[in-house]
Design brief:
With 278 residues, the protein is of the alpha/beta class. It contains nine helices and eleven strands. It has a single domain, classed as Spore Coat Polysaccharide Biosynthesis Protein SpsA, Chain A. Helix 2 links the parallel strand 2 and strand 3. Helix 6 packs parallel to helix 7. The two termini are 27 Å apart. It holds the Pfam family Glycos_transf_2. This is Glycosyltransferase 2-like domain-containing protein. InterPro entries: Glyco_trans_2-like, Nucleotide-diphossugar_trans.
């Protein structure tokens, strides 16, 4: 890794101009300045891409692309990585923001240990105006190299950064996913090396009515995509049964894994691990 590696901020964009300037300001003001912004527009319908081009016209670090047709978030995020030039990458949604030291603290982890393939931090839930509400409590340090780690308790989340070269050792993001894309990325990279937890809130997650995770009409599709990610992960890892139950598309695998990972014994084991690996 070079002394000051290029960091690629990846943005899968679609109709989010209302919040874009706040996102852009949070990246522009980073303490670590060797970065690029790779924005791929998935054929926005609100004419916001023209406004973004105007705002960023004098910033040579911003590279803007547009899909030929609306493809969905899986395709768009995959394209972001393929177009990036940085050694280290990290997705930031255009309606969210990051702390001023988010890039710097993440980069430092990769420079300290070559076996680290990804980092993640605590995340702050915010209201529609990006006013902090609470720190997400589930994010925590995880044990590396566990065959049965599925991030079922959301231990790994934003701000997530990764080595681009390691990503290309995976099969890549499933471009057909319309949700759970980040989880798909996490689990594939987890299989390739160590994750490093940064116990500080670096990512500000905006909760608003337009957000995909807040749209109740899409809950079933969200569940289907999550199930697909889990089944694919089992297939990659050669897991055919869990606790004597055969893995198939007919079972609620998320429920099975949640029950497996949240027994009293498992919870105690995780507490002991975190106690001795703080």
């Amino acid at each position: 890794m070079t002394k000051t590696p290029l960091f690629s901020v990846l943005v899968a964009y679609y109709n989010n101009f209302e919040f874009f300037e706040e996102f852009y300001r949070s990246v522009f003001n980073q303490t670590y300045q060797n970065f690029e912004i790779v924005l791929v527009d998935d054929c926005s319908t609100d004419h916001s891409l023209e406004k973004i081009r105007e705002i960023t016209a004098t910033d040579t670090r911003v590279r803007i692309f547009k899909n030929e047709k609306n493809e969905g978030v899986g395709f768009t995020k995959k394209k972001c990585i393929e177009l990036a030039k940085g050694e280290i990458c990290g997705f930031i949604d255009p309606d969210d923001a990051v702390s001023k030291d988010a890039l710097q603290l993440s980069i430092q982890q990769f420079q300290d240990r070559s076996e680290i393939v990804a980092t993640y931090s605590k995340i702050i839930f915010c209201d529609e105006n990006l006013k902090p509400l609470k720190v997400f409590s589930r994010t925590t340090k995880v044990k590396n190299g566990e065959k049965y780690f599925f991030n079922i308790n959301n231990e790994v989340s934003h701000f997530f950064t990764f080595r681009r070269e390691t990503y290309f050792k995976t099969v890549g993001i499933n471009e057909n996913l319309t949700s759970s894309v980040d989880f798909d990325l996490y689990l594939k990279l987890y299989e390739k090396g160590d994750f490093k937890y940064i116990p500080k809130p670096l990512y500000f997650y905006r909760q608003h009515r337009q957000g995909v995770s807040q749209d109740k009409t899409k809950k079933e599709k969200l569940h289907q995509n999550w199930r697909k990610v889990l089944l694919d992960t089992c297939a990659r890892r050669g897991i055919s049964n869990i606790n004597g139950l055969e893995i198939s598309a007919n079972i609620d695998i998320a429920k099975v894994l949640f029950e497996k990972e949240n027994t009293i014994v498992k919870k105690i084991q995780r507490r002991i691990f975190r106690l001795f690996n703080a």
